[in-house]
């Protein structure tokens, strides 16, 4: 008897192994499919989320032909519709705190995995506020779930209650979240899975964090929406919608087709055809005549050639302009400058004389007009006694008296 070659042996073993693989796959698939059907029935029976009445845009955004379940919080909190801005119908938040008993908002709680979708625009006066998109307290006042937007730090925070009633806080501070605070309309999406939380901005995944085990929800408490952390009053934002879907995939499947400048092509879905293809292939495999080996042979494993390197990936898109950096420290003192040229001589000064002294002497003026004769003056004081005169003879005295009389007569 001739021994078979390694190629013939390898072919026979491959066919033999493939038959057993297909057979085991069929055996394991049938009960799994049946079990999945049973599980779906149980899930539908115990489902805690009611069907939602949404606009037709959500059928295009998510592009899945199924009934949405969850909660429209604007409807639950009786928010009235206000003005239309940028072709968006906005909701009025009012001035009173927005809270309700949790049992009236979520009568049977919410599913363990869910999505939070909120579309809003911050105002200039509130873009740095810290506020709750959603906050759910239990009956003891402890936070069970909260979604916080922090404008000062440009972060988004998700807090949940752990299995041991401990707080599980996850802070998302990716730079791509900074666009949320540019005072334009944005859609914030949060996907809460059993072991992870993901943040989406305008239908783009920003960051994903693995979480610890979370506890179930206690409906014996209160629920708040769009509330400032500082004083518990409604935050001043332009709110378009705030929804909770009982499906963690909605935040990931949302395509934002209703956003300005975004067009979405309808995705054509086909029914799965894997089972008929495998069944037909199995029928052909089983109809082949069995070629059992007449003797045992151990076929060596042949190592294949190394494959060709893959094609280079596409270059990434240009990132957004970064924020202005911090002010730098003062630089070192500069070197002394070069000696300058000699200046031009200045104008002659006026000296240090006063204004009156600096004035020039004028010409002599003309003589004045003679004044009028004045009144007679007052009699003067008696004069000092004169010196004793010399004695004269009597004839000389007579002559002197006659002279004085003559003088007096002349003046009279």
Any descriptors?
412 residues; alpha+beta; 6-stranded antiparallel β-sheet; 8 helices; elongated
Question: What features would you describe in this structure?
Answer:
With 412 residues, the protein is of the alpha+beta class. Among the domains are: 1-46; 50-253, Jelly Rolls (Sandwich), CATH 2.60.120.200. It is 23% helix and 22% strand. It has helices spanning 6-45, 57-62, 73-76, 102-105, 250-253, 274-287, 355-358, 394-411; strands at residues 70-72, 81-85, 88-91, 99-101, 114-122, 130-137, 143-150, 155-161, 167-172, 186-192, 196-201, 204-210, 222-228, 237-245. Helix 1 runs antiparallel to helix 6.
Number of helices: 8
Q: Main sheet, how many strands, which sense, barrel? A: 6 strands, antiparallel
Low-pLDDT stretches: 30-46, 270-302
Estimate the helix proportion, in percent.
10-25%
The name CATH uses for the topology of one domain is Jelly Rolls
Shape call: elongated
% residues in beta strands:
15-25%
What do the pLDDT scores average to? 76
Alpha-carbon distance between the termini? Answer: 202 Å
Question: What is the level 1 CATH name of one domain?
Answer: Mainly Beta
Order of helices and strands: HHEHEEEHEEEEEEEEEEHHHH
* Class inferred from helices and paired strands: alpha+beta
Radius of gyration, whole Å = 55 Å
Strand adjacency order, main sheet: 1-14-5-10-11-12
CATH architecture of one domain: Sandwich
Tell me the total number of β-strands.
14
């Amino acid at each position: 008897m001739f021994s078979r070659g390694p190629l013939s042996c390898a072919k026979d073993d491959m066919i033999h192994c493939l038959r057993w693989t297909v057979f085991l796959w069929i055996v394991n698939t049938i009960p799994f499919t049946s079990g999945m059907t049973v599980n779906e029935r149980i899930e539908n029976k115990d489902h805690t989320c009611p069907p939602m009445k949404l606009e037709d845009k959500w059928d295009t955004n998510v592009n899945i032909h199924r009934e949405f379940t969850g909660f429209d919080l604007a409807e639950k909190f009786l928010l009235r519709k206000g003005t239309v801005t940028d072709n968006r119908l906005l909701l009025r938040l009012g001035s009173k705190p927005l809270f309700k008993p949790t049992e009236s908002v979520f009568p049977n709680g919410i599913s363990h995995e869910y999505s939070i979708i909120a579309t809003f625009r911050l105002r200039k006066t509130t873009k740095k506020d810290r506020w709750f998109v959603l906050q759910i307290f239990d009956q003891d006042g402890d936070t069970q779930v909260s979604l916080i937007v922090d404008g000062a730090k440009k972060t988004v925070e998700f807090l949940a209650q752990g299995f041991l009633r401990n707080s599980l806080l996850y802070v998302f501070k990716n730079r791509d979240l900074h666009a949320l605070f540019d005072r334009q309309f944005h859609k914030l999406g949060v996907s809460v899975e059993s072991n992870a939380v993901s943040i989406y901005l305008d239908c783009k995944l920003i960051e994903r964090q693995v979480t610890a085990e979370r506890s179930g929800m206690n409906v014996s408490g209160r629920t708040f929406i769009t509330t400032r952390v500082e004083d518990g009053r409604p935050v001043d934002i332009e709110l378009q919608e705030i929804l909770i879907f009982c499906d963690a995939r909605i935040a990931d499947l949302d395509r934002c087709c209703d956003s300005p400048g975004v067009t979405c092509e309808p995705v054509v879905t086909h029914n799965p055809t894997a089972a008929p293809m495998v069944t037909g292939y199995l029928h052909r495999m089983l109809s082949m005549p069995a070629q059992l080996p007449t003797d045992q042979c151990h076929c060596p494993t042949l190592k294949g050639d190394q494959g060709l390197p893959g094609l280079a990936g596409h270059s990434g898109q240009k990132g957004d302009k970064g924020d202005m950096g911090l002010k730098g420290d003062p630089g070192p003192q500069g070197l002394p400058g070069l000696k300058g040229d000699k200046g031009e001589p200045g104008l002659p000064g006026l000296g240090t004389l006063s204004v009156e002294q600096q004035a020039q002497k004028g010409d002599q003026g003309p003589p004045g007009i003679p004044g009028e004769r004045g009144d007679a003056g007052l009699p003067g004081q008696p004069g000092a006694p004169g010196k004793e005169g010399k004695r004269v003879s009597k004839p000389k005295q007579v002559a002197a008296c006659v002279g004085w009389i003559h003088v007096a007569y002349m003046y009279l």
